[in-house]
Amino acid sequence: MTDYTRPARVRVAPSPTGHMHLGTARTALYDYLLAKKTSGKFILRIEDTDLKRTIPGAEREIMDGLRWLGLDYDEGPDVGGAFGPYRQTERRDLYTQHAKMLVDNGHAYPCFCTPDRLEKVRQEQQKRKETTRYDGTCRKLSSDEAARRIAGGEKYVIRFKMPFEGSTTARDLLRGDIVIENKNLDDSVILKTDGLPTYHLAAMVDDHLMQITHVLRGSEWLGTFPLHVNIVRAFGWDEPEWVHLSIFLKPSGKGKMSKREAAEAVKDGYSIFIKDMQELGFTPEGLLNWMALMGWGVAENDVLTMSDMIEKFSLDHLNPSPAAVNFQKLDHFNGTHIRLFSTDELAARIKPFLTKAGFNVDDARLLRIIPLIRERLVTLDDGIDFAGFFFKETVEPNPDDLIAKGLDARQSANVARKAHEILAALPEINHAAAEPPMRALVEKLALNPNQVFGIVRVAVTGQKVSPPLFESMEIIGRAKVLERLQKAIEMLESMP
Ligand code: GLU
Q: In terms of domains, do 147 and 216 share one?
């Protein structure tokens, strides 16, 4: 069982190489929960040592994304902290020093092999059907010779010297001991020719210096986990608790979530990128609930708020098995959380979507609309369809939609005229006053309610689907309702 009495120091360590995705967000969430649960600290570290892959703006997106999700970090590049800098490119000297420490204590060595030579070695190994790996040429160089070649200006990398004999046991909190024969391990590069470290060195050094207690990361790092454990041990440091989180599978559950699959999701109105999710109208609450349960063994359909999650969270309940990305569940959780918002809160969340869609939003009116649409919303941008027309001066119904099923244009015009008469006779159009005479009209004309109310709905809202009709008319107001019905009558009468 994990000890929750000691404050945890946990970090999310994304590389700014693209959009922030679900995997990073879920790792950050679990980090955050663990930090909150133990009164510890949650840290953002930007792993930007792969200069070729760094994308401008990606770091900003990560910071904005974490804050939007409500996963505020205690230490990070833009908030500071006692263990900074929090951007790896600003920590170069530390990595150089630490690589040198490993060379000095015999755990690493400079390697002068050129890319051409390495490629030849690789091809020969492939021909012999051997595992491709570094062949150890420079491991055999004496330190004098290595020093001479460095002084002579030769380019080199630093490789970590893996033990040849025995085995390495690495312990993952979710998977137990992972044992690997050392003879199967390669001498990996830890410092590149440009003087920048690879992940293997940088992350180990930083996790140590930043006093990270639990390393939560994707299970794509399981392959190099023994290397990481060996590096930490070569320094003589204590190891953190290692937690390799489950991978994401495609919605079908067959195969890993790939780039192609991610593109498919966009076509269906979903995405695996946090920024897209925000724009699509998903809420942080819904998203967090959904992603929390992908890999965490609380009941699958539990509706959890942040404080529920903090209370219930336990590393011991994380599930190492792959988790299928199920967007229908996301819809479910998003809608559920939307219904938990107060009217004021929901109005404040929907307003930016309406404004962005070009509507001039009146706040008082929006507050009256929210109760009518709350139950129907799956995403916040559904508010555009359900509430946008309330902010239009005029509506333009599609003339064909004004014709009720089973009636022609002339008959529909007649229904509209009768409805107009009834509503015009009312001093105010509200639910209580308008519904009884309108229902009586349905009876009198021997039609069904859908036919009569359908015509009125299209006429006054401009659309076939809307919130409840009488409440909607109440908000639209008597004058506009009558004016729009009149216009619909004219449209219908002018139809052949
Ligand atoms: N920079 C690594 C990545 O983005 C971080 C892995 C880790 O959390 O250690 O995958």
A: yes
Token couple for 283: 């809420």
DSSP category for residue 7: P
Amino acid at 407: L
**How do residues 150-194 score in pLDDT, each as one tens digit?**
999 999 999 999 998 999 999 999 999 999 999 888 999 999 999
Task: Say which CATH number the domain at 431 has.
Answer: 1.10.10.350
Q: Work out the number of other CB atoms within 10 angstroms of the CB of residue 297.
A: 12
pLDDT digits (tens, 9 = 90+) for 48-96: 999 999 999 999 999 999 999 999 999 999 999 999 999 999 999 999 9
Q: What is the pTM of this model?
A: 0.92
- Shared domain check, 202 and 128: yes
Look at residue 43 and tell me if it is in a domain.
Answer: no
Cβ-in-10-Å burial (0-12, 13-18, 19+) of 395 comes to: middle
Sign of CA dihedral 378, 380, 385, 389: positive
* Whether residue 231 is found in the same domain as residue 348: no
Pocket of ligand 1 (CB under 6 A): 13-15, 47, 203, 217-218
Atom of ligand 1 nearest to the CA of 27: 8
Q: How many domains does the chain have?
A: 3
The range of the structural domain enclosing residue 432 comes to 399-493
Angstrom distance (rounded) from CA 106 to CA 54: 33
From CA 456, how far away is CA 473, in angstroms rounded? 10
Contact 107, 227 (CB under 8 A): no
Q: What is the DSSP letter of 206?
A: H
Q: Ligand 1 center to residue 394 CA distance, Å?
A: 53
Pocket test for ligand 1, best of 61, 221, 224, 231 (most atoms within 8 A of CB): 221
Per-residue DSSP letters for 235-273?
HTPPP-EEEEEPPEE-TTSSSB--HHHHHHHHHTT--SB
The HSE-up count of residue 337 (CA atoms within 13 Å, CB side) is 24
